[in-house]
Amino acid sequence: MAGRSKRHQQTMISSDTLFGIFLTIQTGVGFIGNALLFTFYMYIFLILPHQKKPADGILAHLTLANALTLIFRCMPHIIFSFGIRPALDDIGCKIVLYVQRVTRGISLNATSLQSTFQAVTIAPHSCKWSWLKKKISALIHPSLLFFWVMNMVMYSYFMVNIVARGNVTHATCGYYTQICRVMSCDHQGVVISVSAIFIQDLFFLFLMAWNSVYMMTVLSRHHKTAQHVRSRTSSSRSSPEHKATHIVLILVCCFVFCHWSNIFLLMYTELIGTRSWQLENINNFISSFYPTIVPFILIKNENRISGMNFISTRSRVFSP
Q1: Cα 152 to chain center, whole Å?
Q2: Structural domains for the chain
Q3: Buried residues in 163-201 as b, exposed as e (16+ CB within 10 A)
Q4: Which of 316, 295, 203, 207 is nearest to 251 (CA)?
Q5: DSSP 3-state helix, strand, coil percentages of the chain (rounded to 5)?
């Protein structure tokens, strides 16, 4: 009996280690992709401003938030998977969880803003809200600033009662992770904070869904029109915008899938009444899938990434 228990424990350790290796690869690939794409957008802003596009600001914030999400969300799970127990104090725990939550909110906001921008871009001039075409570019950066402030304020209250787990094995209020737990129960404050977060998520998810339906409607109408109009010039002129629209639709679908899968697993965990770290690992993998895949989806639509651009610009910068 003891031998069977020992073999079962070794299997569990081997499974955790295997998950840690897999999550390390996923985190590394995703972080490198987001970091490189963020560097590319900074390169465009600072070195090649004439090549800047209105949506570059949104995508720069999205890739930055995704890179931070992967590091602050996945690293604790990777460390624990290899049997290491980091000695984080309360401040360290608050910082890790706070950055996780804020960057997750920014990822949601930026994806929603990108879908809104693309929907406005491809809207026909006869549309009632086509007047936004000229103004939406000027609204991008103020909107992004508002999103950062909103998320930082929204999650600041949530972080007040979060402390390091230490040697505590059971959370007092039902919320805990491998490194953090809730210190005290303020049910009224928790309800207000969770309600604000839920309303924000629901609003931006609804906005993404509405934008997606609208963009698919516009693409469907254009496809029907293109069947009657065989002009090669017309087709080539509209293809870049339609390609960008398809990329945005893919991003929205990936985000919605990961978000609702995350919610489903959390609800299932609450229903069964016990915390399974194996289920937590699956949830963490699904949550990290979106920030991992985003840069590679965006690269498909980025024609400015070229070694010749970097080489020619470098020669101009360093030439006497």
Answers
A1: 16
A2: 2-222+241-303 (1.20.1070.10)
A3: bbbeeeeeeeeeebbebbbbbeeeeeebeebeebbeebe
A4: 295
A5: 80, 0, 20
Which CA distances in Å does 309 have to 51, 195, 217, 296? 11, 48, 37, 20
Task: Tell me how far apart the alpha carbons of residues 10 and 31 are, in angstroms, rounded to a whole number.
Answer: 31
3-state class (DSSP) for residue 180: strand
Structure tokens at 184: 């005290």
| pLDDT tens-place string over residues 97-145 | 889 889 999 999 999 999 999 998 888 877 776 678 788 888 999 999 9
Where does residue 30 rank: exposed (0-12), middle (13-18), buried (19+ CB within 10 A)? buried
Q: What is the rounded distance in angstroms from the CA atom of residue 99 to the CA atom of residue 91?
A: 12
3-state class of 154 per DSSP? Answer: helix
